[in-house]
Design brief:
Blueprint lengths: L2 H10 L6 E3 L2 E3 L6 E5 L6 E6 L3 H16 L8 H17 L1 H12 L3 H22 L6 E2 L6 E9 L2 E5 L5 H14 L3 E5 L6 H13 L6 E3 L4 H10 L5 E5 L2 H13 L4 E5 L5 E4 L6 H13 L11 E5 H14 L21 H16 L3 E4 L3 E2 L7 E2 L2 E4 L6 H4 L6 E7 L2 H9 L6 E5 L3 H10 L4 E4 L32 E9 L2
């Protein structure tokens, strides 16, 4: 598809900002709406339902009714599997539409919305559908006089609260395992990027997921999100977002019905490059490409780059040669590899971080400015700081923007200590030709995922999540089923 036709498709796209409750599109009961603004050009796309506690209660009631009458949970796993696979197939049939919604709503390049986000989300739905009829329960090794069955059951009503950086993919990571095992779901997308989630609900209904089983309620976090977290009839919350909001949700769970809360939170991932790195060019490409991908709006972005002193100058020179390749462009141009940040609030937040880096003495080598302001959208240059130390704000706090901080080291143990000296523990990486050093460093790094001689390798078969204040529980892989199921023991006396 040409760039002109992407603009033409965008101009002709029909938006529906109403909530999706019990199989129907509905306005917020209050009649209130919020503006859905595209970061591409700052224009308003559509009025979106501003759901509050009344709408949350309606969605939870629909989900509870659907769960109790077992219209979905009571189906054989093989039947749910077929429906989930059809859901994934329909997502791919609507690939261009979903990609456009994702790009217009949060600013990522159409190149990646279409080639990464939609296929990855559909693959997630399909993978959990295919997995659910291949999981066996257990029989405990009890005495001959008894039989003890250990079975998994769906928890009931699952709330999913997801962020704006990967709206469709983050939603899929939550809803796919939750739906596959028979739960009913209430999804609250970010108020900054609700459109693809609302469309997914319609596609799920078309695939055969019954009304009430999958509901989508857009709205602000302090209204819809808090009402969902405090609701007494929600059994479980899967949340991806900031550590600050994750802590609030856990408090709400304690204040209400002690619902289980699973969180995937912030990150400040370290990327350690040793002098014996087996492929320096590959390490440079990974360091630069991973931090600027998705405009730097990734919780696992390797934002702290530790480079051994003897190769640091060479590494930075190679990195600076690549930075111009990531200049922001029109997200609807298929040649663009970095688009707009999600809104003006995020734009100003990133620019403030850049100013703090300069004020604290870091050396700005590239970028640091807002660009393409004439478009009406929100764009920031790829930015690279050198001579950063671990006390600086840009090295301590999650920026969630295209900003790379380079720190040097002479002793690997010092680099590991600095890498671990953070509240976060989502991902990390080490580059070395020494297999013993690689294993020792991977064991020492306190992170849910450690990459060796690469970054961002990904597959549905492996769990994703973090240590410390990067959250608890795991998305992806069979381990995700643990979050959305209860273990039940049934004792039977047989003698």
């Amino acid at each position: 598809m040409t760039n002109t036709s992407w603009h033409d498709r965008a101009a002709g796209l029909k938006f529906d900002g109403r909530a999706f409750i019990n199989g129907q599109r509905v306005a917020a009961q209050s009649g209130a709406t919020l503006d859905c603004i595209s970061p591409v050009d700052g224009r308003k796309l559509v009025d979106v339902a501003r759901c509050d506690a009344l709408d949350i209660d309606a969605a939870v009631t629909a989900a509870r009714t659907a769960f109790e009458d077992r219209r979905w949970a009571g189906l054989a796993p093989a039947v749910r599997k077929r429906t989930m696979i059809k859901f994934a197939d329909l997502m791919l049939q609507h690939r261009d539409e979903l990609a456009l919604l994702e790009t217009l709503d949060m600013g990522k390049p159409i190149k990646y919305s279409r080639s990464v986000d939609v296929p990855a989300a559909a693959n997630c739905i399909r993978w959990y559908g295919e997995a659910v009829d291949k999981i066996y329960d257990e029989i405990a090794p009890t005495p001959d006089t008894t039989l003890a069955l250990i079975t998994r059951e769906p928890v009931g009503v699952v709330a999913a609260i997801v962020p704006w950086n990967y709206p469709m993919l983050m939603a899929s990571w939550k809803i796919a395992p939750a739906l596959a095992v028979g739960n009913s779901v209430v999804l609250k997308p970010s108020e900054k990027s609700p459109l693809s989630a609302l469309r997914l609900a319609e596609i799920a209904l078309e695939a055969g997921i019954p009304p009430g089983v999958f509901n989508v309620v857009p709205g602000y976090g302090h209204e819809a999100g808090s009402a969902l977290a405090l609701h007494m009839d929600v059994d479980c919350i899967g949340f991806t977002g900031s550590t600050r909001i994750g802590k609030q949700i856990m408090q709400y769970a304690g204040q209400s019905n002690l619902k289980r809360v699973w969180t995937e939170l912030g990150g400040k991932s370290p990327n350690i490059v040793c002098a014996d790195c087996p492929d320096l060019d590959a390490a440079v490409r990974a360091a630069v490409g991973s931090i600027y991908f998705n405009q730097g709006e990734s919780c696992n972005a390797p934002s702290r780059l530790f480079v051994e002193a003897s190769i640091k100058e060479q590494f930075i020179a190679k990195a600076l040669a690549l930075v111009p390749n990531f200049q922001p462009g029109d997200p609807l141009d298929e040649a663009t590899v970095m688009g707009a940040v999600v809104d003006n609030v995020q734009l100003n937040s990133v620019l403030d971080f850049i100013e703090s880096g300069k004020a604290e003495g870091a050396q700005l080598l590239a970028g640091g400015n807002q660009v393409r302001s004439e478009s009406g959208g929100y764009y920031i240059e790829p930015t690279l700081f050198n001579n950063v130390n671990s006390t600086m704000k840009i090295a301590r706090e999650e920026i969630f923007g295209p900003v790379l901080s380079v720190l040097g080291f002479t002793d690997l143990n010092d680099a590991i200590r600095a890498a671990n000296a953070t509240a976060f523990g989502l991902q990390a990486a080490v580059w070395t030709s020494d297999i013993r050093k690689a294993h020792q460093t991977a064991r020492a790094l306190r992170a849910g995922t450690v990459h060796v001689n690469q970054y961002d390798e990904d597959d549905m078969t492996v769990p994703f999540g973090g240590y410390k204040q990067s959250g608890n529980g795991r998305d992806k892989s069979l381990h995700a089923f643990d979050k959305y199921t209860e273990l039940k023991t049934t004792w039977i006396k047989i003698v």
